[in-house]
Amino acid sequence: MGLPAVDSSTMPDRSALPTCGVYAHLGVLPTAADAFMNDVQPFVVADAVADHSAEEHGMALRWAARSGVVCTTDDLLLRGLLLGRNRRDA
After folding, report:
1. Among 15, 25, 50, 84, who pairs with 60 as Cys (CB 3.0-4.6 Å)?
2. Which residues pair with 72 in a beta bridge?
3. What was the pLDDT predicted at 52?
């Protein structure tokens, strides 16, 4: 069973994709990489991903950070979304 491809043509007004979930190195990273290759800026929510071990969790976050993926926390992501919404509403 594969992951659905990230298709930026189906979400033309979306330029970012927050990702989270279990198995950071098996599920989250391939999704983030697919988004990146389709000109969508991926964000990995570091405190909203898990893995088999702390070592694999750290490896996944380090790989993401070196590969153009923005690593953030849920708090910073939500603040950024709210600030962006407030700027658009002004």
Report:
1. 25
2. 45
3. 92
Cα angle, residue 26 at apex, residues 25 and 31 outer, rounded to 5°: 90
**Residue 58, number of CB atoms within 10 A of its CB:** 13
- CB distance 8 to 38 below 8 Å: yes
42, 69 in Cβ contact below 8 A?
Answer: yes
Q: C-alpha angle 4/49/27, rounded to 5°?
A: 30
Alpha-carbon gap, residue 51 to 41, rounded angstroms: 22
Q: What is the pTM of this model?
A: 0.66
Q: Taking each helix axis from N to C terminus, what angle separates 54-66 and 29-37, rounded to the nearest 10 degrees?
A: 10
**Could you read off the pLDDT of 26-48 as tens digits, one per residue?**
888 899 888 888 888 888 888 88
Helices (H), 27-90: 29-37, 54-66, 74-89
